[in-house]
């Protein structure tokens, strides 16, 4: 009689293990698991940024449209033709590696307001285009989800090869953790700002997760300083052989939520200027540093190993092992991320604690059963 009982217990345990593993796998497919994975990833990036940052060349700099710049230019931004044209000419003369303009280009001519405005901006764009790779962003109309119009002479000068979509990817919680080199369109696809620049500058471009522990925080030069600077040698020291991003760096405009703010002139903050995130995405893409996500079979294998905690005889030991394994698992995920592999850990940790909790529940039920038998006797 003992053998059938033992066989039944083995079958029950096998069924329990399979059910626990299946539950963990199904949880991994839910939005809740994705949200928890994203939150854990944010913590991992902050820890790596603080304790194990990865070195990267100091070859990207930002020219920022900050509050001081806005105050120093008499015209509204839509009429910054002369200021932006002069800034582009000065940056181009400093022989940068590339220039990225993350600023809306005019949709029409403003010559009726003041003669020479269009020509001033046209001259700056032409100078930037002659200096090397130059990319300007297409602005997307949120109502129609189509690109806003650019005044025909500027569009003809730029052509498709110098235009890119300036959108950033955002996860369900609004945080930007990933980037794409190409966004799908009705005609197939169109490059993003970092995608267009990376293809022009590097042979090893890949997209995916933005590496928030890569390189030093970015420096910026106010656009106002570029316009006022008279020393050409100083401009060359700032910009020569660097990728120059020109974009907004104001505290309350064109910002996105991020795990780590890499604007070196700001303190820790939950958001960052969009131009800084574009710059970090380009840095990640050019260095081929986007972490690869662990394959689904590997995740399922680790998840299946975690449910073995259910087989432990003592439920206290199972819970203790679950606690220690959770800490060890997080440290391992951190090490994998540092080495270039992202391991989503939420479903793995859920499976581990589910197995330990199930073992504790079984022990409690067995204890109650023994008490009831003793009372019956």
Question: Can you put this structure into words, describing what you see?
Answer:
This protein is of the alpha/beta class. The protein has 2 domains: 2-50 and 292-376, no CATH class; 55-286, no CATH class. Helices cover 51% and strands 12% of the residues. It contains 13 helices and 14 strands. It has helices at 2-28, 31-51, 67-72, 81-93, 117-131, 152-158, 193-201, 223-228, 232-239, 274-286, 296-306, 315-338, 346-376; strands spanning 60-65, 98-102, 134-138, 163-165, 178-179, 182-183, 190-191, 208-209, 220-222, 243-248, 255-257, 271-273, 292-293, 341-342. The strands form 5 sheets. The chain has a 6-stranded parallel β-sheet. Strands 5-8 form a two-stranded antiparallel ribbon. A two-stranded antiparallel ribbon has the order 6-7. Helix 6 (152-158) links the parallel strand 3 (134-138) and strand 4 (163-165). The radius of gyration is 28 Å and the shape is elongated. The two termini are 23 Å apart. The model has no long low-confidence stretch (mean pLDDT 89).
Our count of helices gives 13
Q: What structural category do the secondary elements indicate?
A: alpha/beta
Please mark out the parts with pLDDT under 50 across 5 or more consecutive residues, or reply none: none
Q: Distance N terminus to C terminus?
A: 23 Å
Number of E-state strands: 14
């Amino acid at each position: 009689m003992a053998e059938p009982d033992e066989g039944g217990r083995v079958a029950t345990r096998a069924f329990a293990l399979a059910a626990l593993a299946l539950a963990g796998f199904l949880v991994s497919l839910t939005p809740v698991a994705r949200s928890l994975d994203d939150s854990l990833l944010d913590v991992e990036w902050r820890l790596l940024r603080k304790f194990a940052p990865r070195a990267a060349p100091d070859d990207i700099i930002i020219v920022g449209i900050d509050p001081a710049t806005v105050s120093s230019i008499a015209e509204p931004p839509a009429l910054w033709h002369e200021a932006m044209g002069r800034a582009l000419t000065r940056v181009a003369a400093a022989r940068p590696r590339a220039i990225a303009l993350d600023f809306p280009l005019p949709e029409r001519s403003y010559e009726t307001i003041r003669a020479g405005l269009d020509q001033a901006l046209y001259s700056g764009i032409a100078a930037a285009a002659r200096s090397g790779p130059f990319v300007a962003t297409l602005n997307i109309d949120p109502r129609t989800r189509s690109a806003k119009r650019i005044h025909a002479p500027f569009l003809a000068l730029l052509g498709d090869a110098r235009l890119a979509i300036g959108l950033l990817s955002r996860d369900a919680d609004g945080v930007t953790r990933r980037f794409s080199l190409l966004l799908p369109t009705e005609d197939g696809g169109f490059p993003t700002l970092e995608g267009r620049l990376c293809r022009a500058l590097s042979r090893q471009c890949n997209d995916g997760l933005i590496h928030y522990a890569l390189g030093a925080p970015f420096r910026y030069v106010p656009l106002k300083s570029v316009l006022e600077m008279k020393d050409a040698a100083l401009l060359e020291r700032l910009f020569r052989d660097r990728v120059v991003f020109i974009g907004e760096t104001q505290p309350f405009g064109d910002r996105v939520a991020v795990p780590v703010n890499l604007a070196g002139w700001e303190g820790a903050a939950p958001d960052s200027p969009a131009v800084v995130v574009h710059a970090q995405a380009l840095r990640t893409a050019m260095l081929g540093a986007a972490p690869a996500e662990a394959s689904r079979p590997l995740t399922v294998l680790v998840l299946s190993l975690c449910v073995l905690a259910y087989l432990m005889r003592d439920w206290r030991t199972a819970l203790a092992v679950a606690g220690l394994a959770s800490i060890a698992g997080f440290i391992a995920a951190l090490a994998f991320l540092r080495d270039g592999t992202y391991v989503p850990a939420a479903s793995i940790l859920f499976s581990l604690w589910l197995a330990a909790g199930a073992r504790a529940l079984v022990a409690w039920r067995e204890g109650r059963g023994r008490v009831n038998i003793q009372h019956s006797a």
